[in-house]
């Protein structure tokens, strides 16, 4: 008898499954990086620059070294040399990883020293007391679209410019034209669990316990930076309290490794909440100009989206805000162009739906403005501009169920019969309105490997180097294995987030579950076939390994995206200008949904962030100091429970025809379009367009 034959199927594919580590998390048994005890652990605290541009004249370490418990002060005068000439997963490494290699300071918040002490309190006190003398130079931190320093970015993840047809001619021939500027502010993805790393040398092996989105990513970069054999570096990241793009390779990992090498004892470097507002990236502010031209029937003749964003002077990161129009709407002429402004500010990075989140605010607001001008329902306008193939690429769509999302969403939201006139629905001192917007997010696969073992006792072990950053990825992989093996999930144990496992992609770009799921399903499927042949299981079990590299490379060229339709109802206080979201509905077409419970979490989480983006989030940079005003969760407003009403998220049937198990990706599409749906609802309530986020009371009145 084989294991699969003597156990009934107890899982119905498609049904929800609670998080396999959920009980550990709510009882405190799950320990995060900062909780784990180590014998002989020392604590490092980073010291960040107070000037926005210039050089370090001196680090006055002597007084601090005499303080209780202080073990070392590392800075550019004494730090070991690092190797920084290498390619990381997303391109050349951010120079902030080259800790203490020179005396230049390019922004407020640049790491200038690490103080290491016996206790966390001693390290914190000594770091606060460390005096650093600077030679300050004039700085410029003020972002604007017409800044003379604006440049065409040299390289980015997608083409910075794509032009099809003659936009100016099509605009001139259009019956209706929208030409507007939209702005979004600097926004932060400061995760509930701040970044933390413990590094320790075990003989010649570097053993790192960390909070990150990909252990191979971090291990490979540490190996490069410290000139180590990658096989001698182990990075583990068991539980992660949020990442959202911020937990790639960061200064905390480099600092802990460096200090552990110098002191030859385990060192932990945890960032403070305030430091997460300086060291781990953020969403660049954007200034976007959208020009749309349509004929009398509302068919787009021209789509012109120009996105400006900021970066630091040391590293180019481009916020691709204009890119999604290339796939969203048909138009005779398309122009999507990005420009970059290098300022004396930290380098921005990927923040949940990088590009799409701010870009959809501009484009989906402009589409709503065009619908108003053309006298069309905004959903009807979108239906008239639905492309048969990629509007710029000409490639076929893998599957495109955007209109199905709008149809089903409109039905459930009660869109039919909506009075399009703005400013006419009153309820006491409140004005009421509804709005909608489209969502799109690219769908990619990355090569991954996995191993699935049938154990002699009838259980199974899945090994896949996935990262569960709070998404439920660990549970999704158990579900994929259970459904493929046709066994109950409680017979499956899983190991993830350990670079000693064979390589798999990181958690990012909404492609984790799809990419790891492919590898797990491939191994589990082959194992199931082998078990079906019978013959018993030897004591060491039967292990099947998979590697999707070839299969992923063989995927045909297509336009692959997740889609969605966002709906919002708002009430606007005519006395104070306060906007209250009353309800939201998101309908998504995002591939096969592996685990409805955690998938709904992902969509609702993205939509909640959309409310936050629409109404609250705004980091304010002080032109005088070059730093942030209120760099903490008191000064940086995010939506709280009282701001978040009933949010419904659901999905239409949309298995990806090119993925072996139909998965697309759900992590990021939930935030896309959410802010635009709310802004469009505020217009419908008040008659005033909101083209600048956040929609603060002073902007509404
Ligand atoms: Mo995501 S912003 O690719 O973690």
Automatic annotation (TrEMBL):
<dbReference type="InterPro" id="IPR008274">
    <property type="entry name" value="AldOxase/xan_DH_MoCoBD1"/>
</dbReference>
<keyword id="KW-0500">Molybdenum</keyword>
<feature type="domain" description="Aldehyde oxidase/xanthine dehydrogenase a/b hammerhead">
    <location>
        <begin position="27"/>
        <end position="138"/>
    </location>
</feature>
<dbReference type="InterPro" id="IPR036856">
    <property type="entry name" value="Ald_Oxase/Xan_DH_a/b_sf"/>
</dbReference>
<dbReference type="InterPro" id="IPR046867">
    <property type="entry name" value="AldOxase/xan_DH_MoCoBD2"/>
</dbReference>
<dbReference type="InterPro" id="IPR016208">
    <property type="entry name" value="Ald_Oxase/xanthine_DH-like"/>
</dbReference>
<dbReference type="InterPro" id="IPR000674">
    <property type="entry name" value="Ald_Oxase/Xan_DH_a/b"/>
</dbReference>
<protein>
    <submittedName>
        <fullName>Xanthine dehydrogenase family protein molybdopterin-binding subunit</fullName>
    </submittedName>
</protein>
<dbReference type="Pfam" id="PF02738">
    <property type="entry name" value="MoCoBD_1"/>
</dbReference>
<dbReference type="InterPro" id="IPR037165">
    <property type="entry name" value="AldOxase/xan_DH_Mopterin-bd_sf"/>
</dbReference>
<dbReference type="Pfam" id="PF20256">
    <property type="entry name" value="MoCoBD_2"/>
</dbReference>
<dbReference type="Pfam" id="PF01315">
    <property type="entry name" value="Ald_Xan_dh_C"/>
</dbReference>
<keyword id="KW-0560">Oxidoreductase</keyword>
């Amino acid at each position: 008898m084989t294991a699969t034959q003597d156990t009934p199927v107890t899982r119905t594919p498609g049904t929800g499954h609670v998080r396999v580590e959920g009980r550990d998390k709510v009882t405190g048994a799950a320990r995060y990086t900062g909780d784990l005890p180590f014998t002989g652990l020392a604590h490092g605290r980073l010291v960040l620059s107070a000037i926005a541009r210039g050089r370090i004249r001196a680090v006055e370490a002597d007084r601090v070294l005499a303080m209780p418990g202080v073990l070392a002060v590392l800075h550019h005068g004494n730090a070991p040399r690092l190797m920084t000439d290498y390619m990381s997963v997303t391109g050349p490494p951010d120079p902030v990883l080259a800790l203490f290699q020179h005396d230049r300071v390019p922004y407020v918040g640049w790491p200038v020293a690490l103080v290491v002490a016996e206790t966390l309190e001693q390290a914190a006190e000594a770091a606060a007391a460390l005096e650093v003398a600077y030679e300050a130079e004039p700085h410029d931190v003020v972002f604007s679209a017409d800044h003379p320093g604006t440049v065409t970015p040299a390289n980015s993840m997608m083409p910075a410019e794509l032009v099809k047809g003659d936009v100016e001619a099509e605009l001139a021939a259009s019956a209706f034209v929208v030409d507007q500027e939209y702005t979004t502010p600097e926004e932060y993805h400061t995760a509930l669990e701040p970044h933390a790393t413990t590094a320790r040398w075990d003989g010649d092996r570097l053993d790192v316990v960390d909070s990150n989105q990909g252990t191979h990513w971090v291990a490979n970069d540490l190996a490069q930076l410290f000139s180590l054999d990658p096989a001698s570096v182990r990075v583990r990241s068991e539980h992660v309290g949020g990442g959202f793009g911020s937990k790639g390779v960061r200064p905390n990992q480099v600092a802990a490794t460096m200090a552990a090498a110098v002191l030859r004892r385990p060192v932990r470097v945890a960032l403070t909440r305030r430091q997460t507002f300086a060291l781990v990236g953020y969403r660049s502010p954007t200034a976007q100009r959208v020009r749309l031209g349509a004929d009398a029937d509302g068919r787009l003749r021209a789509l012109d989206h120009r996105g400006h964003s900021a970066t630091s002077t040391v590293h180019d990161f481009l916020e691709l805000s204009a890119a999604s129009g290339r796939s969203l709407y048909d138009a005779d002429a398309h122009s999507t162009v990005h420009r970059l402004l290098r300022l004396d500010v930290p380098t921005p990075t990927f923040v949940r739906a990088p590009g799409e989140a701010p870009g959809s605010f501009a484009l989906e607001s402009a589409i709503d403005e065009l619908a108003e001008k053309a006298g069309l329902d905004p959903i009807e306008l979108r239906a008239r501009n639905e492309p048969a193939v990629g509007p710029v690429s000409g490639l076929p769509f893998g599957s495109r169920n955007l209109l199905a999302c709008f149809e089903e969403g409109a039905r459930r939201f009660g869109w039919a019969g909506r009075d399009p006139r703005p400013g006419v629905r009153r309820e006491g001192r409140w004005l009421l309105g509804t709005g909608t917007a489209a969502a799109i997010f690219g769908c990619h696969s990355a090569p991954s490997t996995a191993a699935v073992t049938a154990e002699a006792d009838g259980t199974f072990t899945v090994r896949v180097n996935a990262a569960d950053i709070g998404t439920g990825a660990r549970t999704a992989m158990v579900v994929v294995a259970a459904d493929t093996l046709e066994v109950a999930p409680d017979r499956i144990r899983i190991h993830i987030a350990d670079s000693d496992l064979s390589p798999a992609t990181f958690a990012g770009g909404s492609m984790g579950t799809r990419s790891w799921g492919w590898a797990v399903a491939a191994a589990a499927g082959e194992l199931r076939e082998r078990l079906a042949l019978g013959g018993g299981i030897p004591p060491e079990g039967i292990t099947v390994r998979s590697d999707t590299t070839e299969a992923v490379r063989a995927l045909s060229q297509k336009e692959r995206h997740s889609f969605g339709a966002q709906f919002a109802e708002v009430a606007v206080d005519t006395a104070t200008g306060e906007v209250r979201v009353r309800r939201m509905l998101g309908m998504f077409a995002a591939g096969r949904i592996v685990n409805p419970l955690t998938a709904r979490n992902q969509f609702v989480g993205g939509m909640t962030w959309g409310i936050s983006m629409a109404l609250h989030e705004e980091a304010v940079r002080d032109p005088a100091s070059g730093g942030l005003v209120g760099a903490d969760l008191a000064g940086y407003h995010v939506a709280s429970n009282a701001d978040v009403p009933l949010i419904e998220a659901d999905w239409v049937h949309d298995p990806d025809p090119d993925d072996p198990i139909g998965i697309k990706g759900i992590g990021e599409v939930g935030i896309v379009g959410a802010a635009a749906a709310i802004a469009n609802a505020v217009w419908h309530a008040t008659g005033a367009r909101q083209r600048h986020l956040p929609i603060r009371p002073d902007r509404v009145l």
